[in-house]
Amino acid sequence: MSMERLEAGAAQDGALIEFFKYACQVGARPAGRGRLRLRGVVLLAACLIGGAILSRNGGQSPVAAPAAGPSHIAFVANERLAPMVSFSPPDAIRAPLHYQARMRENSTERWDTLTFGDAGGNEILFRVTLRAAKSAGSALPRSSLFVELAKQSAEIGAAVVHATNPEFFSTSRGPIEWAEVTLSGAMGERPCLGFRLDRLREIDLSGLACGAHGATLDRVALGRLIDRLSATGSGRELGLGEVLKSGAT
């Protein structure tokens, strides 16, 4: 087996282990009814699989394991925070639009989520997550795209059961890192695309895009959805205006 394949396998195992640690942390919280109960089952399964991986490696994470990203558990919802980004839905699609802004306690770090569509529905799902650095001018540490998508999927009660290697394509807003992913949740498996804007340094903007009725979105359709994102006044103050077109405040 080549060194490249060994390194790739170690990196993937490390990413999975970081997600399993995160899943177990989330799963330890009290579960509600309905969808939260399903999420608990998914996360419990993730913990069991993670234990098997750790056992296989003697309880040690591979050397090539990426650094763990921050957990959204440390962030508290704050309705007084102005949104950093807005979304202009396509005229032909009727779906709920929800925005949640969260902040880490005793810090200026933010974790915002914009969701268009219902994770458990049959219509399109476009979910964007933004993490802002502590202070202007500081680079934001990032986990791998796979780990980031696994965390975001867990928030909607789903799990990533398949993912391709990330690729890049160029747009007017800079390079976009993307990968094909398959999510497994209450409605079965669903093909989606995971993405991240690579140009940003002080804000990590990434997310998931899933087609309606199990349809697969292509890279062009993903680009069109991203083009409908606009920076608000708060977003422009943090540097989003350089990448996203101006939006309403």
How does the SSE layout of this entry go?
Elements (H helix, E strand, L loop, with lengths): L2 H25 L7 H22 L18 E3 L7 E3 L9 E8 L5 E7 L8 E8 L12 H11 L3 E5 L3 E5 L2 E12 L2 E10 L5 E8 L8 H9 L1 E3 L1 H5 L7 E2 L3
Parallel strand pairs: 11-12
Antiparallel strand pairs: 1-3, 2-11, 3-4, 4-5, 5-10, 6-8, 7-8, 8-9, 9-10
Give a brief outline of the structure.
This protein is of the alpha+beta class. It has helices spanning 3-27, 35-56, 145-155, 219-227, 233-237; strands at 75-77, 85-87, 97-104, 110-116, 125-132, 159-163, 167-171, 174-185, 188-197, 203-210, 229-231, 245-246. A hairpin with a 2-residue loop joins strand 8 and strand 9.
Report on the structure:
This protein is α+β, with helices and mostly antiparallel strands and 249 residues long. It folds into two domains: 3-56; 72-246, Protein Transport Mog1p, Chain A (3-Layer(aba) Sandwich). The chain contains five helices and twelve strands. Strands 1, 3, 4, 5, 6, 7, 8, 9 and 10 form a nine-stranded antiparallel β-sheet that branches. Strand 8 (174-185) and strand 9 (188-197) form a beta hairpin. The longest helix is centred in the N-terminal third of the chain and has 25 residues, at 3-27. It starts with a helix and ends with a strand. Mean pLDDT is 74; it is low at 1-44 and 46-69.
